[in-house]
Amino acid sequence: MKIERIEIHPLVGKLEEPFGWSQRWTDERRTTIVKIVADDGSYGWGETGTSTEALAGAASRLIGENPERIGAIWQSIVNPTYQGGGFTGFSSNVASAIDMALHDLVGRSHGLPVYELLGGRVRDRICAYATGLYYVPSDLEDPTWGDFLEEAQGYVDQGFSGMKMKVGGLKLDEDVDRVHALRRQVGDNIRIMVDANEAYDPMTALRMANRIADADVTWFEEPCSSRADDDNLLVTLRSPVPTSGGESASTRREVARLLKKRIFDIIQPEIVNVGGITELKLSASMAEAFNVRFVPHFWNTAISFSAILHTLATVSQSPPAHPKEPYVNEPVTEFDQTPHPIRYALTDPVFTQTDSHVEVPDKPGLGVEVDEEVLAHFREGDAVVVS
User: Fold this and answer.
1) Which of 93, 143, 177, 266 can pair with 293 through a Cys bridge, CB separation 3.0 to 4.6 Å?
2) For the whole prediction, is pTM greater than 0.85?
C-alpha cells in the first residue's frame, strides 16, 4: 500500500452573530481538512489550522510512501525543522493533519478503530465539559447577563456537569461579577472553568484568581502570555485556583518543557497544534509521569474531536486509585459548543453527550464520515491536490 494522493481543503464558515474573547472577535470559523488516499482506495481524514502552502509542501514528499509507517512519516515532516531543542509550530500543525489522516486510513484499511492501533481502549466513553459563554454583542448590552446565563442553563439542561466561560474581555470587576452570576445560575454541583486567553499580567491574574476562588472555580486557563513561562509559573505558585494551559504547545518537547517546570497545574495540548494523535498520546503519558492532570483542548470539527476521543480511550487512569472520577483521576476533554457551521454539517456522526460523557466511536478508523458535498460548499477556493 502506498500514498497515491493528498487533498487539502481550506474551509470557512460565516457566523450569524460574532463572538469574542479577550484578544479579538470573530465572525467566521476556519479549518483545513486533509484527505489522504492510498493506491488500494483506502483513505483517511485529518485537520489542522495551518496554511495550504505548508501542507502542500509536506504532502509532495509523501507520495509513494507506505501510510502504515506513521511514525517515520511524522519524523520526516517535523525533524527537518528542529531548531535548538524545539520545532517550528508550522511543522507540528502540518504533522497534526497528516498524522490524524494516516491513523484514520490505516484503521479503515485493517477494519480497526484507531484506539486499537494505540494499544486498545480502557474506557468506551469520555467525560466532556461544554465550552461556550464567550462575549456576544447582545449580552454586553445587558447588565444582568441574560443571554449569558440562559446559555449556561442550556448546558445544564443538556446534562453537562461542567462548563467553561471567558474572562479578560471586560473590566476586572465586570468579569468577576459574571463568574459569580454563573455560579448562582448553575448551582453548586456544576464545575466552572474560566479562560483568560492570555489576557493578564501576573499581578492582575492573581487579583482575578483571588476574587473568583470563592465561586469554586475548577481551573483558571491561560492567565498570562503562553510564551511567558515565568509569569505563568508565578501565578500557578500563588493562585488559590488551579491553573491550566498549553494549547499552543508544538510537539512533545514543548509539552515536556511545561511539565518539567510545572508551569501549570493542568496541561491542555491541542491536537491540531501539538502534532496529531502521535503527540497527544505521548503528551498524555508524560503528564501521567509528572502527576499533572491532562485535559486536551478542542476547537475544530468532529474529525479532530474523534481523534481526541480515541486517544483518551487508551490513556491510563492517573493516579490508578478508586473510585474512578473525572477531573480527579479519569480523563476529561473539552467539547466546544460555540457556533460552528462547518462542524454541524461536515460529518456523520455529529457528536453529542449524555450525562456529560461522549461515546468513543467504534467503527474502523476515526469512525467519522465526511460529506464531500458539504466540504465543497465551505471550501475557500479550489482544493489543492498533490499526487
Assistant:
1) 266
2) yes
